[in-house]
């Protein structure tokens, strides 16, 4: 653990750490993990190389921290599903939130997808631990709603997989989507309407 990675970081330290992660996102998105350098990350962050290395010991450490932060961000909307809410409203709100993330964070989505395609070497423990725990808790809620007749019965984990794939497609394959739709059309707005209708029909009892 580096000197500035403990729980007692000052606001300046947290700000610098966030700048480094944003710089890393730019560098990794442009050059990939292998092509990106600490110098590039430092320039993108507006900090010196020694300053970057004060917070993170290596490029791989920065990459892992960035991916962990992204995973937390991806999972936040799922954790906001209210077990006591109206089931269809909660699921459709989750779908909408994921679509908005594809609009607002396309680089982050593509970076995360690239990590998964590489076998998730930096996220193996997290994917098998924290991610699975959150999904399992959501599955319990979905199964209860289905047992109560408030959602149509489908396999809940595959329902979650389908939401991930359908919403993140608009970020990960943005160039393809825009090329097919043509100029003057909004992929996210159109996609959100389509997916709302699709999941509403699928899940209405």
Structure, described:
- The chain has helices at residues 11-35, 38-45, 49-55, 59-79, 87-104, 106-117, 124-147, 156-172, 174-181, 187-203.
- Helices cover 77% and strands 0% of the residues.
- The N and C termini lie far apart (51 Å).
- The protein contains ten helices and no strands.
- 24% of the residues are buried.
- With 205 residues, the chain is mostly helical.
- The chain folds into two domains: 1-57, Orthogonal Bundle (Arc Repressor Mutant, subunit A), CATH 1.10.10.60; 60-203, Orthogonal Bundle (Tetracycline Repressor, domain 2), CATH 1.10.357.10.
- The radius of gyration is 19 Å and the shape is globular.
């Amino acid at each position: 653990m580096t000197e500035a990675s403990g729980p007692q970081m000052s606001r300046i330290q947290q700000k610098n750490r966030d700048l480094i992660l944003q710089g890393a996102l730019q560098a990794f998105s442009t050059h990939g993990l292998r092509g990106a350098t600490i110098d590039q990350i430092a320039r993108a962050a507006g900090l010196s190389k020694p300053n970057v290395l004060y917070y993170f010991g290596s490029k791989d450490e920065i990459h892992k921290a960035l991916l962990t932060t992204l995973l937390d961000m991806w999972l936040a909307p799922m954790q906001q599903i209210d077990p006591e809410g109206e089931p269809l409203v909660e699921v459709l709100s989750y779908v909408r939130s994921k679509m908005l993330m594809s609009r607002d964070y396309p680089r982050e989505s593509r970076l995360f997808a690239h990590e998964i395609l590489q076998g998730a070497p930096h996220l193996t423990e997290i994917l098998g631990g924290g991610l699975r725990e959150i999904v399992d808790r959501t599955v319990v809620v979905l199964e209860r709603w289905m047992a109560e007749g408030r959602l149509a019965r489908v396999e809940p984990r595959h329902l979650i997989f389908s939401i991930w794939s359908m919403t993140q497609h608009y970020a990960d394959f943005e160039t393809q989507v825009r090329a097919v739709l043509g100029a003057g059309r909004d992929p996210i707005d159109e996609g959100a309407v389509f997916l709302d209708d699709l999941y509403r029909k699928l899940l209405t009892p």
